[in-house]
């Protein structure tokens, strides 16, 4: 009798646990999935190009437009394409890591002590964050995904699982630009590879228009490998559009001296002029060009605490 009661109790607990399951996506989980998605795209594009696209494009010998044999060695242009591909993947990954490492953007208690000593009161223009239990400087906002207040917070990027703020905004812009270039190069290589077996002519044009490739695969007119490459073309085009939009949006905000929050609230209080706005993000013109080749942590004139107010500042919230 005692065992039966124990089993019933255990069964009730299991049922109760089953019905109370929470399938709501957690912010940290969603953010990590976005980061994993980005890493997978870089990995797939590199190895697809290395083992499929480049050998398929540069190791073919053709006569009168028809492939007659594989040479077994790489033709002219292979090593140049490989070098550009390698540099692109390295730059995308390096800038992605710089954006991901956003710890310098975190607002800490030491930041207030450094500028105002041991005062308990919230400094003028600052606001108190009830979640972090600390005072944050102007243009800083709390991120529920990161769990921290971020200096000059612009947005939380799911592709990097981090916030875009004062110290990594420049790397985010370069990351998006290289993302556009990487996707564009990927589409070029993929279409060049497909063009060998399915020439881009008026007759075969519909072969590249979805959902025609799926139908061609089902009836046996398209190989599974070519179908996967075509599918990757569509993915690259979508990612290229997203990265291009993000890069253009960030550049517009930088020129206007705003963050996404300030643009949404129509706050123009921190616009110090185009030149000053640009140098406040990318640094000195003498060194900022280095960011295109190496995303180094170059010094910035701003510290994220002191801002020149040109108009009406934002209200504390």
Strand order of the largest sheet: 1-2
Anisotropy-based shape: globular
Largest sheet: 2 strands, antiparallel
Helix content: 40-55%
Number of DSSP helical runs: 10
Distance between the terminal alpha carbons, to the nearest Å? 61 Å
Strand content: 5-15%
Tell me the total number of β-strands. 8
Q: Using the CA coordinates, give the radius of gyration.
A: 26 Å
The secondary-structure element order is HHEEHHEEEEEEHHHHHH
* Content-based structural category: mainly alpha
What are the segments in which pLDDT stays under 50 over at least 5 consecutive residues?
1-7, 64-72
Mean pLDDT metric: 84
Main location: membrane
Protein name: Palmitoyltransferase
GO cellular component, one term: membrane
Keywords: Acyltransferase, Membrane, Transferase, Transmembrane, Transmembrane helix
Brief account:
The protein is mainly alpha-helical and 317 residues long. Helix content is 53%, strand content 9%. GO terms for molecular function: protein-cysteine S-palmitoyltransferase activity.
């Amino acid at each position: 009798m005692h065992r039966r009661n124990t089993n019933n109790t255990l069964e009730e607990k299991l049922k109760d646990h089953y019905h109370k399951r929470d399938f709501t996506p957690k912010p940290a989980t969603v953010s990590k999935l976005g980061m994993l998605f980005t890493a997978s795209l870089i990995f797939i594009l590199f190895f697809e190009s290395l083992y499929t696209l480049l050998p398929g494009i540069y190791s073919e010998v053709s006569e009168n437009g028809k492939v007659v044999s594989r040479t077994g060695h790489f033709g002219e242009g292979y090593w140049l394409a490989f070098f550009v591909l390698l540099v692109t993947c390295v730059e995308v990954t390096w800038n992605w890591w710089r954006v991901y490492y956003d710890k310098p953007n975190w607002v800490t208690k030491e930041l207030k002590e450094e500028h105002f000593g041991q005062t308990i009161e919230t400094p003028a223009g600052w606001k108190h964050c009830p979640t972090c239990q600390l005072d944050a400087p102007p243009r800083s906002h709390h991120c529920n995904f990161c769990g921290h207040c971020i200096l000059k917070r612009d947005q939380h990027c799911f592709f990097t699982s981090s916030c875009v703020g004062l110290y990594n905004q420049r790397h985010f812009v370069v990351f998006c630009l290289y993302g556009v270039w990487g996707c564009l190069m990927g589409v070029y290589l993929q279409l060049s590879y497909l063009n060998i077996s399915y020439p881009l002519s008026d007759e075969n044009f519909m072969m590249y228009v979805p959902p025609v490739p799926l139908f061609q695969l089902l009836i046996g007119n398209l190989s599974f490998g070519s179908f996967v490459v075509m599918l990757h073309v569509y993915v690259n085009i979508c990612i290229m559009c997203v990265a291009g939009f993000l890069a253009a949006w960030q550049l517009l905000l930088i020129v206007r001296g705003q963050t996404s929050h300030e643009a949404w609230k129509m706050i123009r209080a921190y616009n110090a002029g185009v030149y000053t706005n640009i140098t406040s993000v990318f640094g000195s013109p003498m060194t900022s060009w280095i960011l295109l080749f190496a995303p180094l942590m170059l010094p910035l004139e701003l510290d994220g605490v002191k801002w020149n107010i040109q108009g009406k500042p934002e209200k504390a919230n």
